[in-house]
Each structure stands twice: as C-alpha cells, then as structure tokens.
Amino acid sequence: MRVLGVDPGLTRCGVGVVEGVAGRPLTIVGVGVVRTPVDAELGHRLVAIEQGIEAWLDEHRPEFVAVERVFSQHNVRTVMGTAQASAVAMLCAARRGIPVALHTPSEVKAAVTGTGRADKAQVGAMVTRLLRLDAPPKPADAADALALAICHIWRAPAHNRLQQAVALHAAKATKGRPA
Q: Does the reported pTM lie above 0.85?
C-alpha cells in the first residue's frame, strides 16, 4: 500500500509518501513541504498548495491519501487556514478517485508513539526509527505527514473491515424493505 500523508497548513503543508503493509517494515518514498508566501492572497496560496499536491500525486501515484483531521483550536484564523489546505488536499485526491482518510492528531500520535499526548519531538523520533532514517525529517510538518501515512497503513486493515461490516449491515437492513 502506498499512502500520501498530508499535514495541512497554509504556510507549510507537509507531504510524505510511505509504502508498506501493517506488520512489516515500511519504506519512505518521499517527503517534503509545499510552501506558500505568508503575504500572498489566500486564493493564490490555495492554488499553490493545489499545484504542489498535484505534483506529489503525479510523481508518487499513491493508492490512498491520509489527511490530518482539522480540530477546534483557540486560534480561529489558524484553524481556518488548516481547514482550507485540508480541503484542497481532499479535492485533489477525490478528483483522481483516490480514497481519502482523515486521522486526528491524537490518533496519529497514538499509532506512531503509543500515546495520543506525544509531542512533536517524540513523533519525529519515532518516524525516524520506524522508517530507518538518519535524522528526523525537517520541518516538523514533513515528519507529521510521514506519521499520517504510517498511521493510515497501520489502521487501514481494521478500518476496511469496519467499513465492510457497516456496508453488509446496511445491505441486510434494506433487503427486507419494499422498493
């Protein structure tokens, strides 16, 4: 399974591609950051993020895209920018028919470090160890994108089984209803 992890942000949007399956060593395919100028108009920044993500999708051809789920923060301006960048990533994937999964920061931290309260340094250290890197990816947005991809690879089998069970239940429930 090849997953593009996206840590959304207007100024720095972390991107990282990881390949592998749960229970086996994972391989880093690529890592980076899509950057936009702080002083640019919002629309231009979103187009730059779109172009950057499209380039990553073209180059790495992921089977899944894992995006950090936006959660409520005290700074509404920050959460709006994060949500807008997140929507761009989801749109790029949906346009190509690539399934998108959303993972909360605490889910990602728990999957990668064993605790949902891990700090950025702990996440970076575990990403470094899990992908057998010489040093943590910089900036932290890049390491977070890799952590998202790792989280998705590890959680996908259980998530897929759950989706299949829900679909089967829904099919059984509608089977007995008149058309």
A: yes
